[in-house]
Amino acid sequence: MLEREPVPRIPPVEQVQIDVRDIPGASTMELLFRVMEHRPQLARHSLALLQAAMREGTVEPELKELLAIRVSQVNNCFY
After folding, report:
1. Dmax over Cα atoms in the chain, in whole Å?
2. How crowded is residue 71: how many other Cβ atoms within 10 Å of its Cβ?
3. pTM for the full predicted model
């Protein structure tokens, strides 16, 4: 079975204000953030929430990343 790139219903923005490629853990969600760029304030707040959830706290970021991957697998979701 061939894996296809997900196609969003809302076209992604080409010129983005937030570059997520350099943020650990966010690069796999580049398409999501490009779609969110239609609402830049929402994109910034969502990115801040992602960074707080995945990079702060007492659980190691690597373990959080593994958990995110496993949750996406269980839900047959592209990650």
Report:
1. 39
2. 11
3. 0.66
CA 43/CA 58 separation, integer angstroms: 26
CA distance 4 to 52: 30
Q: What six digits make up the tokens of 59?
A: 């659980």
- What token pair was written down for 44? 């910034």
- Distance in Å from the first CA to the final CA of the chain: 17
The per-residue pLDDT for range 38-68, each reduced to its tens digit, is 998 998 898 888 888 888 889 998 898 899 8
Asked whether 47 and 26 are in contact (CB, 8 A), the reply is yes
Distance CA 12, CA 6 (A): 12
The angle at the Cα of 53, spanning 57 to 70, to the nearest 5 degrees, equals 105
7: left (phi over 0), alpha (psi -120 to 50) or beta: beta
